[in-house]
Each structure stands twice: as C-alpha cells, then as structure tokens.
Amino acid sequence: MVRKGIRIVSQDKARIITVQVRRGTDGENQLAAYKVPVEPGQSVLGVLQYIYDYLDSTLAFSCSCRIGLCSACLVRVNGKVVRACTTLAEGDMLIEPYSDDARIRDLVVQLPPLGK
Amino acid sequence: MGLPIEEEICCDVLVIGTEGTGARASIEAAGRGVDVLAVTKGFLARSGATLTADGEIDVDSRSAREIFGVEGSPDDSPEQFARDMIEEGDYLADQGLVAIHAEEAPARVKELLDWGASLEGFIHAPGHTYPRGLWIPGLKLARLLARRLRSVGISVLENAMVVDLLRDAEGVLGAVALHLPTGRLLLLRSRAVVLATGGAMRVFPLTTAPEELTGDGLAMALRCGAALQDMEFPMFLPYTFLTPPALRGVIFPYDVSTLLEVHALNRRGERYMAHWDPQRLEKTTRDINSVAAAMEIRAGRGSQAGGTYLSFKHLPPNLLEFSAEWFPGNLRNWRAAGFRLRDFFPSLERAWEVAPACHFWNGGIRIDERCRTGVPGLFAAGEGTAGIHGANRLAGNALTMTQVWGKRAGFFAAAFAKSNKLRDPRRAQVEEVARKVLRLRSPAPGPTVVEVRQEIRRIAGEMVGIVREEESLSQALAAISDLRDQLPRQRVQSQDPRFNREWVEGLQNENMLDVLEAVVRASLARPESRGALYRVDYPFTDDDHWLCNLVLQRHDAEWTIREEPVQELHISLPQGKRAYGQKGDKDRIPR
C-alpha cells in the first residue's frame, strides 16, 4: 500500500512509471524525475496530483473541471499538447508546459484571454 | 505605508467570481455606468462550475413556448414553476425569492439569445410539472458571457484569490487578494462587493465539482459578519463513477440512469431501491437515491470500491449498441469526460461501481430580494446563496439562478455604489488578512496543507456524509476544532511566490473548514430529515416544528444559530409529520 489518502493504490494493480517534468520558468529549466505508481485508468492529471500530494508539493500545475472542458490543464506529454485530465497515463512520460510563451512556472502558462 | 500590500486597485463594484453569476453581475453593473473589477481565482471561462453544466436552463413552459418557440405547454406559468420549486425544496425556500426567480427567468434567457446564444434543445426534466429545460451548453454559455464581459470593457483580474473582505462599522470596503502568478498581495478597494464564488462541494471527498469550489465566498461572508442559511443541505447526485481514477466523480452513469432502465445493486445483487421507492426504483428523486445508496454502503453491503453497482447485464447487446446513437448530444456514443467509455468498459457485462457525489450547494449566504447580505455594500448571488432552492434544487435551475440573481446583484450593487463613497481600509485589518498569507510563507511545525485538505475531506466523508446522525456529527465538531488549531501552523514545501499552489490550498483549507463546521452545526440543529438532509436518527419530516430556516453567524469564534420561520406568501405550507421523501397530499392553495 502506498500512503493512505483519498485513494488507496494497491501494489498488485499499480505499476511504477518514471515521470519527468520540465520545471522552472523561461531560461531556468530543470528536469525533475519522479517514480509514480499508476493504476489502470489513471490520467496524466492524476499523475500530477499524485506527485504534488505525495512526492513534491513544490510542483506548479493548473487544472479546473477535470472532465475535458475548461482547457486549464493543457500540457505537453511526450511532445504532444493534450489535456492532462483526458489523457491516460500509459507509461514513462515527459511532461512539459504546453507553451513556453507566457510560462509562469513549471506547467502553468498564462492562457491567452478568451473573448478578445 | 509599511503594509505588505504591493498594489492597490480601486473600483466602484468588485465582483468576486466571473462565471455564470459573476459575469452576469459584472455586465449589469457596468451597464449601469459604474466601474467594475471582476476577479477570478482561475482563468476567465476556464474555471468554475458554469462551463461544466450540461446545459439545462429553466423557464416556465408557457414562456418557453411564447418567447422561444419550443414545444412548451400553455398551461404552465411562472406561478406553477414557483410551486414546483417550493415543493422540490421541501417547503424551505423563500417564497418571495422564488416568485422573482420564476418571473424573471424568461427575460434573462432572452438576453442570452440576444447576445448570441443558441438554444440547442428543450427537455422535460424530473420534478417539473411541465417541460421547462431550454438547452444552452454550459461551456458555450461561459464563453458567451466572457466575450460580453470583455466587449463592454470590464477589467478582469485572473488568477487572483481573494483572501478576505475588508469592512468597517459602516460596511464593506473591499478585499485583499493574492495574485497567484507573482505571489503579491493586492488591495482591492470598492464601494460595493458582489460575491459570486459558487458552492463548497470540494469539501466532500467525492464530488463532481471543479477545483475552485471550496466555499471561499461563504467563508469570507461568514467572517465578515454576514449570515449563512440552509447549510445542512449540500446536494448529492447519485451514480457517479468511483473508478477508474480518471472518471472519479463523473456523472455519466446518472445521466444514463435517466435514459435507460439500469439496475442499482448492492453486493448481494439486490435491487435495494425496492426498499425506498418500489414504484420508481432507480428513477426516484436524486435525494432518496443518494440516501439509499449511502445506507447500503453504511450497512456493509457496498461494492468493492465502496459504492454500489450499476448493472446493464439485463439489457441486450443490440439495445445497448443502439443507445449510443440516440443518446442526446453530450452523451452520444457513450462519451464522457473526454473519454470513450468503451475504452474503459469494453463489455457492459461488468457493472459500474458508482457512488453519490456532492454536486451542488443548496444553501449559503443569506440574501434578500436585492441580494443584500446584511453587511452594507456586500451583495451575493448564485450558487452558495440561500432561499431559492430551499432544501433541494430542481434540475436545470442552477443556470437560471446565475442569470436571474447575477443580474439583480449587479443592478443593486451598482445602485449602492453610486450613492456611497470609497472609504480607507483600517490598517490593522489589512495586516491581519495579510498575516494569513505571510504565515504560509514562514516555516511552520504543523501538518502540510495537503494533509489538512485530506483530513477535512475525511471528516466530511466519514462524519458529515449523506447519512448523518448526532454522534458522528458531534465527533466531526471535535475533529474540526482540533484541525482549526492546526491551521495557523500549516506547513508548505515551496516558498516560490510564483503560482504557489500550496498557499492557495492553505487559504482554501480555512474556507473549507469554516463551511464544514457550518454544515455540521446546522445539521445538528435540525432533528428531522428534509430535502438533501437525511438524519438516520430522525428519519421523518416534521412540518409542525421545522418549517424554518437555520441561520448561522459567527462572531469572535462564537457561533449563533437562529430559526427563521418560513413565510407563507403564495403557497400554503404543509402540516404534520411524514416519512422522509414523501411530499404527500398537500393542500396547496394559491393565495
């Protein structure tokens, strides 16, 4: 059993993946690596939440609706821009901010304003 | 000045929350000629609950027919709509507010169409005597309102979490906010404030709600001297996914249950709804459905993941395949939350594990018909205000609430701002608010903000769930008191001021704890079951003694609760005692 929280991840169902996250801001990038237990049917957002909750709460990431509507959780996974909440965690991955323009910190990007 | 405030912004009306309600309030206030600053904790139209709404926005059926040209019934009326709301709310709604809500709904929806919205359908949802559900997807509504907001030149401050309101003896003065991208503290000064921050569903461990819904507005209003009402009625929606993790809290199974004959089973394979509503079974009302599931789980008859089973096994494969074609738009092809469900469930021979999730906040800040809170200059509207839904909300009425009451709050806040001045905030008060944030920036010996958040949700889930009783509610109070002592000692790992998620959580934890305590106290003070509140130690509804609203305030850590009798303005109130969930034979004589 990993640390008990809202979800209990049983060791027999979970496998450990290596998640690299490109952290920092413009001009200061570091690759942080985390070993994350994932269950079948876990999303990339779930992975980020796990890292933040149990491994490293210095990680900055955005999310809101968690159901693929709001676009707050856009990230780049293995080079492709996706919503973290609707992308399944399927193996080792590299997570980066979806854009390097207007990057605030780690995976948080100032989204271009809607409505303009 | 020596204050830790790094920027000051002045305006006439400060609107906190920018989605359905906040956007509508801002647009109205700006239209009255006052200077509006709209603030949101997230990104405009990319946060909050409005964009997650499937799209039902209710107006009475006759207006739907006459104004919008859909197949509404000419026999309906705003009065009948109001009557249905009062009945669904188990008679605790404010009949004056409900009358206004039903009366003004059509004009508010008409405006949305004038601003570019299109109606995508018209439905008859459960609980309504006539079809009233006009359909505008929440995402489109949120974006439409954002475009309107920007087009009328309203200033929008994104990623700013308002920490507390500022006031003096005369009323509200503004607020202090944490600007998340920079970690700076901002002083927002205004003549009037509108709270439109939504409910507090994130207090509960299983919820359909987005991140931001941590009850910030409710807690700030309480701390500012306003009153909270009907806090014992957070609304639960049955049949949300418990597993897989990516689908946790997603409401798709509930939607399917309204379209297909599904079977809800306990671990023994019994259709347990037979004990609660033998006629309607799984299609019973959402409150009874949630209570039934919670009772099965509590009795040790739950599923492996701690919920109940939703089974399709009895439906033929070709029937299920065909359903993918005729399900309405957002559910078509069995898509939910951005996934194709067949990727998770290749066969519907296996049942889904589901549980009721906290979905809406029925009570909240006590307001009058002008959205006034009792603190001069402080207005509130939308989810997280009390009186419109009583003890439970009708389907589709959440979006209507944003537009009717957002507009009213903006209107009355603007009028107030025009006849009141900006006043200087008291330095001591600003420092006190700033200290809350600064404390999170200093080393501390206590639990981490993550641990505190998890503990809040544990207390809520275990002791303040769908099924409540005196003993566990009292335990909750003790646990909350212990946790409150830990709040000033919360520990964070990062002192990077740029988008510090831990600081946000630390502040949200205080808000969630304040709200949870209000839920517990109100639940303890109501020895009956009604609407969204089920007390297993008082499993009946007592209309002789409890047709009143519980109004809570807190001053210097001392809570007061008073009972305000419901006023019989238009619909006569029932008498006697009845079993929970039975609305019974009522003598509903219109006055």
Query: Which runs of chain A of at least 5 residues are low in confidence (pLDDT < 50)?
Result: 1-11
Computed structural class of chain A: mainly beta
Average pLDDT of chain A: 89
How confident is the prediction overall: mean pLDDT of chain B? 95
Strand order of the largest sheet of chain B: 7-3-2-11-20
Content of β-strand of chain A: 25-35%
Backbone CA Rg of chain B = 23 Å
Biggest beta sheet summary of chain A: 5 strands, mixed
Oligomeric state of the chains present here: heterodimer
Distance between the termini of chain B: 60 Å
Rounded Rg of chain A: 14 Å
Which pair of chains has the greatest number of interface residues, and how are they split between the two chains?
A-B, 44 and 51 residues
Count of DSSP E strands of chain A?
7
Query: What is the first-to-last residue Cα distance of chain A?
Result: 49 Å
Q: What is the tally of helical segments of chain A?
A: 1
Major sheet of chain B: 5 strands, parallel
Number of helices of chain B: 15
Q: In a nutshell, what does this entry contain?
A:
The complex is a heterodimer of chains A (116) and B (591). Chain A is built from 1 helix and 7 strands; from the N terminus they run ββαβββββ.
Protein model, in words:
The complex is a heterodimer of chains A (116) and B (591). Chain A has 116 residues and is mainly beta. Chain A starts with 14 loop residues before the first strand and ends in a 7-residue tail after the last strand. The radius of gyration of chain A is 14 Å and the shape is globular. In chain A, strand 3 (74-77) and strand 4 (80-83) form a beta hairpin. Chain A has 1 helix and 7 strands. Chain A has a 5-stranded mixed sheet with strand order 2-1-5-3-4, covered by helices on one side. Chain A has a two-stranded antiparallel ribbon with strand order 6-7. With 591 residues, chain B is an alpha/beta fold. Helices cover 34% and strands 19% of the residues of chain B. Chain B has a 5-stranded parallel sheet, sandwiched between helices. In chain B, strand 2, helix 1 and strand 3 form a beta-alpha-beta unit. In chain B, helix 1 runs parallel beside helix 5 and helix 3 (78-88) crosses helix 4 (95-114). The longest helix of chain B has 24 residues, at 501-524. At the A-B interface, helix 1 of A face helix 5 and helix 13 of B.
